[in-house]
């Protein structure tokens, strides 16, 4: 039986998650088309059973969403599954051409580099709000990394001459290189961890 490959081009064999905390939460189960039709949406936390490329595609459905507000309108992105799959395929082709490596592995390394380890929570003590550093759960680390990568790419492409494919390629590539000067995801991770370090 032939190997199952993403878009019939890129295999999942030999790709390992190096971060032991993220290993159970980055799913690399082989899939041809990253679309399961909501199979894992009925139970809480089952998204970890979803292929990591499909989670990237799902994040791109609502890229403007950040916190409780839509900073940029993203209503035009929802439901355009084939368009988003074409964008992801184009991004992966560019990653393969640039690095001569499997683009799925590049995506995994970018998520590992962009996944924050600590963040800040606030709670009320008496009449004041206290900020405290807390360790981020592994599932939230993956979610936050994917969100920031997609949102920063969408902001760079929204109303600009650069295409979404180029913006997403740049974000994933520079997150893979762990470059905070060119990757918004790495810059945001370092900012949050720096704040958490000060609130410890």
Describe the SSE topology.
Layout: E1 5-6, E2 10-11, H1 52-61, E3 65-66, E4 69-70, H2 81-99, H3 103-114, E5 118-125, E6 128-135, H4 138-157, H5 164-176, H6 184-198
A few lines on this structure:
This protein has 200 residues and is of the alpha+beta class. The chain is 44% helix and 12% strand.
Descriptive account of the structure:
Strands 1-2 form a two-stranded antiparallel ribbon. Helix 2 (81-99) crosses helix 5 (164-176), helix 3 packs across helix 5 and helix 4 crosses helix 6. The chain has a single domain (59-198), classed as Ribosomal Protein S7, CATH 1.10.455.10. The chain has helices at 52-61, 81-99, 103-114, 138-157, 164-176, 184-198, and strands at residues 5-6, 10-11, 65-66, 69-70, 118-125, 128-135. With 200 residues, it is an alpha+beta fold.
Q: Notable features of this structure?
A:
200 residues; alpha+beta; Ribosomal Protein S7; two-stranded antiparallel sheet; 6 helices; 6 strands; 12% strand
Q: How many structural domains can be distinguished in the coordinates? A: 1
The biggest sheet amounts to: 2 strands, antiparallel
* Protein structure class: alpha+beta
Placed side by side, the strands forming the largest sheet appear as: 1-2
Q: Measure the end-to-end span.
A: 54 Å
Strand residue percentage: 5-15%
From the spread of the alpha carbons, the general shape counts as globular
- Please give the radius of gyration in angstroms: 17 Å
What is the helix/strand order? EEHEEHHEEHHH
> Could you name the CATH topology?
Ribosomal Protein S7
CATH superfamily placement:
Ribosomal protein S7/S5
- How many beta strands in the DSSP annotation? 6
Query: Helix coverage percent of residues?
Result: 40-55%
CATH architecture: Orthogonal Bundle
Which runs of at least 5 residues are low in confidence (pLDDT < 50)? none
Annotation field: number of helices: 6
What CATH first level would be assigned? Mainly Alpha
Mean pLDDT over all positions: 87
